[in-house]
Every structure is written in structure tokens, then in C-alpha cells.
Give the backbone structure.
Amino acid sequence: MSGKGNEKEHGIETPGTMVLVLIFLTVFAIAFLGNLKWLATAWWVK
Amino acid sequence: MSASNEAFRTCDVTGFRVHRPAEWLIRVNAVAAVVCVLIGGIYGLLVALTRWPAVHLLDAAWYYRALSGHGLNMLIFWIIFFEVAGLYFGSAVVLNSRIAAPKVGWLAFILMVAGALLVNVSILRGKADVLMTSYPPLKAEPMYYLGVILFAVGALLAVILFFATLVVAKREKTYQGSVPLFTFGLTAAAIIAIFTLAHGAAIYVPTFLWSIGLLPGIDPAIYRTVWWGLGHPSQQINVAAMISIWYLIGTLTVGSKPVNEKVCRGAFLLYILFINLASAHHLLVDPGVSSTWKVWNTSYAMYLAVVASMIHAYTVPAAIELAQRRKGYNKSLFEWLRKAPWGNPAVAGMALSVFVFGFLGGLTGPILGTEQVNIIAHNTYRITGHFHGTVVGGTTLAFMALSYYIVPLIFRRQIAFPKLANLQVWLFGLGVAGLSATMMLAGSYGVPRRHWDIAFSGAPFGVEVNPAAYMWLALMGISAIIAAIGGALYCLIAVVTVFFGKRMDSPKDLTYPVSAPAPDAGTGIAPSL
Amino acid sequence: MSINVERVWWKPVDKGEKIWIIIALMWAIFLFVMMPWWHYYGKQNPSSETYKVSPEKFQELTNRMIEQYKVGEDAGIPVVAPPPGSDVFLLARQFQWTPVLKFKKGETYRLHLSSMDVQHGFSLQPTNMNFMVLPGYDYVLTMTPTETGTFEVVCNEFCGIGHHAMVGKIIVE
């Protein structure tokens, strides 16, 4: 891409988006692992 | 050019040569879509008010009928009519082409309308109390299955017409280079639609034959396996269409162009290749298929489709951020977002659609699709919450948002009640977000989906349902009312605009402006479409 | 107007996109590994054990178990206390689960599920564990109750207008 503006400052052109998707991934990971933990407390076994 | 010039008009806003027969097909399909969303919405409100235990509106039989009608009118009829309109727009209009065979388009439309009518009549007659999945050996009257088949054949014809129009446009050289990203995304959706509808034929035709007595029975496990080859990928058609619309709205409203279209297009390719396997996660706690089959089919390739969605989750906002930064909104991390044209309902609708789809519908999908987690989630209200996040908060809201551009461009009318339009997307988006979240929370206490009475009246044993579940169900009812008001406003605005809206005579009559391309961001409006 | 879209496939990918694609791929690989890993080391997994069975045969097996181990009746439904380790049959039909089962905490049972008519859903509450029950298929779950109490079996697959009244019971002592 053209290499002006924010690129030099942040190294990537869309830092705001990067922050947003990292928040998304964090929520995703917590929800996923939380479900596995929750599952482990249920009382039947395979 | 093989078509005569009278068959075309030139759009004064976009400069497109619009093929009039294509425009009429887009119009009738869009109107049918709005009629279906209205019917489905009424059913939906009745369903929600029945599941709110303090209200418990309908009796058992009518609850399940309303639920069947809600599912089919919303998930199938509204969405597919809108998608067919979108396919004609993305092929004929966006590529400056004539539509390959308008008569086929009309035949498709008639079949779809006939199918939708048969299904609705059958449900209202009380002869199809089988819900949307119609799992055998529960049996509906033959007319019901016939209606589904007619609708699917019509949809298949429309998809074929889309491909034929792509061929015509290519052969008649109405565009140069690649097809625009919007059309590319729709092509992905259309390819998924072909194998989805093939699954539909493979299961509904034998089921129809069984219903008229020509086949002795349908194996329930085989039915489930094949039916979900229809049921799940059809949602992926919606996802592909919705994401195409996100890119299009970005272009229309802030003049955006993806940072690198190769990445977006590659992600669409991943959908085509891998998303069909996601259907396996409907069978995670079924007899008949082994754990190896379940783990393999839900994990190895479904996650490549998850990667594709995560890529879009980056590239969609990135395109907008880039355009906004190039317009000078460059100060902090989020000035580009704060200074987005929020007064435009397409922008607010799209932002809500991205948010609800991502955080409520999207990330819960792979979690529920984990073999083990599915034990604590299968057939609970968590599932319903998940797909209301994807298909209502995501797809339906994106379709509504795009309508605020498509309706003026295609019907040549100014949007009626523009202030209400702003309120509409927020009411609907937040209502659905609440609906999705409260359903999942209620479901986490084991509240079953598709269930008339969690007080279990008439059962031999009482069931102690956690009081928290009652609270979430009440909040679900309230959210549903908010969403229903948003949905009703959408229908009101669409109908008044189409039939009584002020005529549009020049580009300055456009209710919401089409943004010029952001500086350095492309070579003109059409390419970034 | 003329439409001319530049071809994009050779353009280099932006740094931010590259970083994100790598992160997304790593997350996908983690998700991928998690399921088989849990399958071997986790304690909860859906069963793989399935047999074809006719409704008549399943009914017969259930009746035989009821005759052998019946200890009483509850709401007109036989209560059965099968010995630990044995094959236990739970029969689903519109709109009833037969029989009521009595288990011992910490003991393992082979629970067979099948339906006489349409599809049903086995949903154990309030523990919240859910499995499908199909006619013609015998689904065998190897189960070990780890708590005492009374648990309800709710049907959570739509099976007809009386669906909501389909509640069974498992008692763990």
C-alpha cells in the first residue's frame, strides 16, 4: 500500500481494527475455555 | 450489445446501465421478501410472547404452528427472496449487463411464491405441525413438502440465472478485469447455494414420496445427516451474502475499499471449500455416527471456515478505518470510528450487524460446535440464541441496512421517514442483541428450545427450573418486543417508500448520499463496489 | 459507465492483515487440537456406541428389565433399580419416558436410549446433559452419577403437541 500517514507511526495501516479484533479474540478464548471448564463440572462421565 | 438500448436506463447516481427486466425482478423479489419478513415477524412475536412464562400467550398447538411459520418465513422465505434480489443486483446491475433470461427469473419467482403460499397454508391448516426441520417420522401433509420443494426449485433457477448472467456479462464484455468484490462474494454464496439445494432435493423429494405413500419410511438418522447438509450450509449462504453486503455498505457510505482484496476474496474461497462440513456439528450427540466422524468433520476444516470469518472480521472494519484515515480522521486509535457517518442508518445497521454477528452469533458457533460442549448445549435455548445472533442480528440487519440504499436506487423513491429509519436499525439491532444473549443465558440453565411450557404442565413429574431462567426468559420477551417494533418500522418504511415515497428525479434526491471513493483508495466507485 | 476492476491476486498483503491471519490460524489450530485432546483426557464425551434396534425388540428388552428389577411405581410409571454395571433401558414414546430409574452414586451403568415412535431428546435436568433419541437406533451412554438426588429427564426434541409434558425421572441414591 502507499505507505503514508499512519503506517510509519504504527507499523500497520489499521491499528484500531487490530485492537478491535484482539478484543474479539480475547472474548472468544474466554468463552471457549469457560465452556470446557463448565463442562468438566457436570456429573456424568462418558 | 445484444439487448436493445430501450431495455436499459442509465442510473444518474451510480452511472450503471440498469437492465429494466432485471430491475423489475429485483423489485418483485424485494417486495416478496418484505411481505415474508412481516408474516414471519408476527409469528416470531407470538412465539416470544408464549415463551415469556408470565405471558404464555398461545396454546400448545398454535405455539408450534407459529414456531414453524416463524422459522420458514424468516429463515427461508424472507432471506432467500432478498438474496435472489441481491443476486440479480450483483450480477446484472453491478456488471452493467442484461439479465440472461428474464423469463426464467419470473418462473423462479412464481415457483417461490407458490411454494411459500403452500407452506404457509399447510401450517395454518394445522397439517404441518413438524417445525422447520420436519424430522421424520413426524409427518406433514404432502402439500407442505411440495411447497418446500417448489420454493427450492425456484431458488435454484434464480441461482442458475445469476450464473448465466455472469457468463453473459463476461462474454459481452460489460466489465473488464475481475468482477467486483460484492459480486465475488455473492458468487461464493451462489456456489454454496448449489450444493445446499442439492442436499435439499436429496432429502425433501424422498420425504415427499414417503408422505404420499410411495416410500415405506425415511431413516431418521440419514434424514438428519442429509437435512443438515441443507440446514447448515444455507446459513453459510447468508453469511457470504451478509459479508458481501458489509463490504458494499462500506463502499457506499464512506467510500472504502479493502486494504487488500486478495485477502477478502481468499476468505470467500475458504467458505466455498470448507463450510459445508460445519453441518456435522448438528449431529454431535446423535446415535449412528461415531466420535471419530464427529470430531474430524467438525474440527479439521470447519476451523478453516472459522479462519475465513475471522479474516473478514479484520478486513471489513479495516476497509472502513483505512478510508476514514485517508479522509483525515487520523488522530487517535478510534477517531475513524467515532467520526463515521452514524446518522446514516446503513452505517449504524452495518456496525450493529458486525457487532452482533461477531460477539453473539459468530464466536458461539465454534464453541457450541465442540463435540463435548455440545452435550451441555444441544437443543437448549443456547442454540436458538446463537442463530438469532447470526441470522437475525447479522444477516437480517445487514439486509435491512442495505435496503436504505437499494430501495431508492431500484424503486427510484426517497426513503419515507428517514428519522424513523435511524431509530429502526438501533431498535432492531439492540432488541436482537438482547434476544440472542437472553436466550443463551436461559439455555445455559437447560431451558429447552422449541418448548411450549417450561412449567411442564400435565407432566407426571415436576421439574425445578432455576428461577434465573425465568428472569432471562422475561427479558427475552421484552427484547423480542423491542426487536419486533424495529422490524415493524422496517416494514412500514419499506412499504410506504415503495408505494407512496416521493419520486427521485436526480442524485440530490437520494436520501443517503453515495460517498465518493476515499482518496488514494481506488479508481472509482464501480471498482470498489 | 465502464467497470474496470484491477486484478488483485499478486498484491502483497498488508502487515496488519498478515499478523491477524497468523493469529487466526493459530487459534484455529488450538481449537482443532482441543477436541481430540479432550476426547482422550477429558471426562465428558458423547458416546460412539450405537446399534440398530427395532421398536418391538427395544420394548421387549425394556419390559424384561422392568420385570426383573422393578421396586415400585411413581405416577403410574414403574420404578426400576438395576444392578450397577448392567444394561439399563430407557424407552421414549409420545409423551412419556419408561421406566423411572434408580441409580447408585459412583456406580457405572450402560444406559440404552431408543424411541418407539418419533424422534425425542434426552435432556437430564438440572445437570443439563443432552442426547438425541431416534427410533430404530439404540444409543448406549456409559454413565456414572456423581451426585445424589432426583433428576428429571425432559424431552427436548419436538415430538408432537404434547411434547412439553414428556418428563421422566432418574433417582440417584
Observations:
- Residues 16-46 of chain A form one domain.
- Confidence is low (pLDDT under 50) at residues 1-10 of chain A.
- The longest helix of chain A spans residues 15-41.
- Chain A is about 70% helix and 0% strand.
